[in-house]
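User: Sequence in, structure out. Go.
Assistant: Echoing your sequence, followed by the C-alpha cells.
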Amino acid sequence: MPAPNPDLPAFDPARQAPVKRALISVSDKSRLIDQATALHERGVKLVSTGGTHRAIAAAGIPVKDVAELTHFPEMMDGRVKTLHPMVHGGLLGDRDLASHKDAMHTHGILSIDLLIVNLYPFENAVASGGSYEMCVENIDIGGPAMIRAAAKNHAHVAVCTDAEDVDAVLADMDAHDGKTTGTLRQRLAAKTYARSATYDAAIANWFAGQLEETPKYRSQGGTLKQELRYGENPHQTAAFYSDGSTRPGVSTAEQLQGKALSYNNINDTDAAYELVAEFGNVAQGAKPAVAIIKHANPCGVAVADDFITAYKNALACDPVSAFGGIVALNGNLDAKTAKEIVKVFTEVVIAPSADDDAVEVFAKKKKLRLLIAGGLPDVNAPSLTQRNVAGGILVQDRDNGAVADEDLKVVTKRKPTDAEMADLRMAWKVAKHVKSNAIIYVKDGSTAGIGAGQMSRIDSARIAARKAEDAQEAAGWDAPRTQGCACASDAFFPFADGMLAAASAGATAIIQPGGSIRDEDVIAAADEKDIAMVFTGMRHFRH
C-alpha cells in the first residue's frame, strides 16, 4: 500500500486554505445561480461543465467551460468531460509538495480549491420506475471520481455534494477572509465519502436486483432523515436514515403534528403500517382495517364496514396494551374515528390520508403524532430486509409470501365453514406480523387474543387465551371472544398440546403451515375435537 510522504506536514484542522477557483457541475440547479453569484462576488473564478456552464453563463456570471482547462471537448453525450489530468491534477495536487507544484507548473495545471458536485440522480431514476437503460445512463462516473479526489486532498480542497455544503463554505469564507478551515474541509470530506458509498450501494443493490444470484459483496447506505434523541434506551445514540426507496410508510410520510418521532415510535409505526397494508387499500375497494401496535407486536387488529367499528373492535382485543400504542388505518381517516382514537392515549396514528376535520380533532392533542403516508405499501412487492449481527449482516427477501385459496389444504374430517375460513385467512395475515412463536385468535373479523414471542408455542396459545379473558372482563362480555374462533399458528405444531390449548380456549378452526413429523398426531387430535384444520404449506417466522 502507498506510504505517506515524509515531506508532508501533519493535517492541521486549524489550517486555512484560500478559495480562488471553483469547479461546479451539478444536476440539481435549484440554487445554482444564487450560489455561483455569491462565489463570484467573493472573487472566486468559476469553471463549469455542460448544462451547469450554460446556466451560469446565461445568468451573466463569468465562467469558463471545463474544455478550456482540458483543451479537450466534451463528448459521448457528456460521458467524457472531467476525466482528465487537468481536472484531477488540479484537485489532487498537494500544495505542500514541491514535486506536485513543479508538475502542475510544467503541465499548466491550475489548482482547484473548491469542488461543487451533486451526482446524477440515479436513486431518483430507480424510484421513478425508470427503464434499465435510463437507470444505467444515470450512473455518474466523473462526479464520484472528482468528489473522491477532492476529499482525499481535503488538506487544501473543500468539496460540496449538496447546496447545504456550499452555504457552509460561504459562511466559512466570510469568517476567515476568503479561506476555509481544515475543520470544515475535513467534515466535508467525511460526508463526501459517505455520499459516494451510499451512491455506489444504491447502484450495486439495483444491479443485484436485476440478477438472479447472490452477490459476493453487499452494500448498504442511507441519507440522514432525522437525528433522534436516543435509541431503544436513553443511553443509546440513534438516527433515522432513508434508503431512498419510495415504499409508502414511516420514511415517506408527512408528519402533520406532534413532537418528533422516537426510535421506538419509528420501529412500531413501520410494523403497524406494514400489517394494516395486508388488508388492502380502502380507496381500491378493500374493507376498513385498523391495527394497534405496541412494542412491534399487534395488540389488536380488526376489519369492519367502517373505521370506527374496526377501531373499537381492535381496541377491545387488548385495551390495556393499547395505551400508548400506534394506530394504523388502511384508508382515509375520518373525524368520527379520530374522536374515538383520542379517547385513549396514543403515540402515533398513520394513514394514507385524513379529512381536515380529523386533523382538527388531533390538533387538540399536541403530543400525538399524525402521519400521512399518501398510500399503502405493496405487501407483494419484492424488497430486502437487513439485520446486523456480530461481524456481519443478515440479508433476506421481505416476507411477501401469500397463500392462494386453492393452495389451502383441509386435512381434517370437518371442513371450515365460510365464516371460519374468512377468520382463518385474517388470522393468517396477522400471524405474519407477530413475533414468533405466534398464536392468533380471530372471531368475526377481529382479533380475540394474541400470543407473541414465546419460547414455547403452547405458552403463546395460553397467553392469547388469557388476553381474551382479560378483554372479556374489561368489556363485561358473557364469554371471551375466543369461543368459536379461528386460530392461526405462524409455524407448525410440533406436538398436539399447542393445538389442544387453542381448542381449550374455544377455537373451532385452525390454520397452520403443517410439516411436522407429528402432523398425523395433531390431525387426529383435531378430528377428535371436531376441529377443522387447514395447512398452508408456508410458515411466517418473525424473530
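User: And one key feature?
Assistant: The chain has a mean pLDDT of 92.
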